[in-house]
Amino acid sequence: MKRRVIFAGVAAIAGLLVPLAAATPPASAGTGVGCVGSDCSVSVWQFVKLGGPAYAKGGGANTISINVPPPPCLWNPIGDATTGSQYIIGQFGTVTKQDSLFDVYQSVQQAKKLLANPTPGTWYELPVNPAAGAAGAAACAKLPLFAFEAPDVAPPMPNVPPVDLADYAYNNMKVPSPGVQLMPGARGWVNLATYVRLTRLHRTFVTASLGDQAVRVTAVPTMLKITSSSGGQVYSKGCSLSGSKYQAGHLPTAGAGVPPDCGVLWQAPTTAGTVTATVTWTITWRVTRGDVAGNGVLFPITLAGTSAAIRVAEIQSINGTGNGGN
User: Fold this and answer.
1) Domain boundaries defined on the chain
2) Order of strands across the sheet with 146-149?
3) Distance between CA atoms of 163 and 298, rounded to whole angstroms?
4) Looking at residue 18, what is its pLDDT?
5) What is the pLDDT of residues 285-306, one digit of tens each?
6) ω before 70 within 30° of 0 (cis)?
7) DSSP string spanning 216-267?
8) Taking the CB of residue 134, how many other CB atoms lie within 10 A of it?
């Protein structure tokens, strides 16, 4: 029995689609997975399971172009428990157990049972992609020609390079912008220190699994830059990734002109003093499951957060002759 052959081209977009020309599928083929008549376009990424605290359904703000060579084989949806079963029986219903290759006889028996008692799911066919060469054909030959899977369950999948799986996870990752808190409170004073604390800066990750493969992409904040609106002199040598070492309500008593460990000294009054924190996240990935080990570094992600605006006033003198004390 000769495996059916399809053609697949190279794709290079975040939502990778590999175009497939199905080999004599039934006219009713198509399960809503990119099929129109006899032309199917199947995304390998539809089978990827994503999770973790940084998973952003619908995609994150940062993307990497995924350049995947033509896969040796890829599952092509051919119908549900009724239409797909009819197709398999019509094509291979006379195959005997002795003559069967690629588990076709077993698939025919399963198709007969499903036709008599349909259950939710999809039949997939696994043709060979000639662009993958002899090695690709050999890899496909190790998998069955047909597989029926329940909704949201992936059929046996050909391996993809772990870095491509990591790139896909990265494209669906969202790390938070830093929250910026000014201390003390919602008011500042010229020549007195305003301290800065940051929130939402913690290690986070997204996972991606495809068949027997899985990777984890981890984001760690590693660099902080502080800037301020006009009128503020920034001091950041004492900044940790959380900003100042001091907490609200426990600020040091410091006189005029004494800079904060992490924050600003306002040089002039303003009605809208702000501080912006720009954080760079280092992104790494590693294989957590699969036959091929791997790890690496992806593009860093840089995000900024700005504090709420505060009013900065001058300190009035004791005798009330200061200028601008409101």
Assistant:
1) 18-48+66-158, 179-313
2) 76-79, 122-125, 146-149
3) 9
4) 29
5) 999 998 889 999 999 999 999 9
6) no
7) EEEEEEEEEEEEESTTEEEE-TT-BTTB-S--TT------TTPPPSSEEEE-
8) 9
